[in-house]
Amino acid sequence: MEGYKVQYKNSNFAKQRILLDGKKFNHCEFKDCIIVLEKGETDISGCSFENCKLMLTGNAYTIGKIIKLFTRQSPLKVLDIDEPLFEKT
Prior knowledge:
The chain is α/β, with parallel strands linked by helices. The protein has one domain. Helix content is 16%, strand content 36%. The strands form three sheets. A three-stranded parallel sheet has the order 1-4-7, with no helix packed on it. The chain has a three-stranded parallel sheet with strand order 2-5-8, with no helix packed on it. The N and C termini lie far apart (39 Å).
C-alpha cells in the first residue's frame, strides 16, 4: 500500500495508544506506548521503540499464531485485554 494518507516524520509519541494500520512512520520515536496492528498495512522505517508493547489484533494476531506454530515460540508477548495499558506512577 503506497500513498498513505497519514504520514509522520521525526515525530515523538509517549504514553499513547498508536494504531499503525493505514499510516506511515519515518524516523519516529515511541516511548511507553501501546502499538496496535490489525492488518499490517503500514510502513515503518528508522523508528525507535522504548518500553512499548505491541498488540496484535485481527489478521495480525492470526499471523502471530501461525508464526508460533512454525517456530514453537511466541514471537511476541500477547497483551492481555485486562492488563493496564500504562503503569501507574
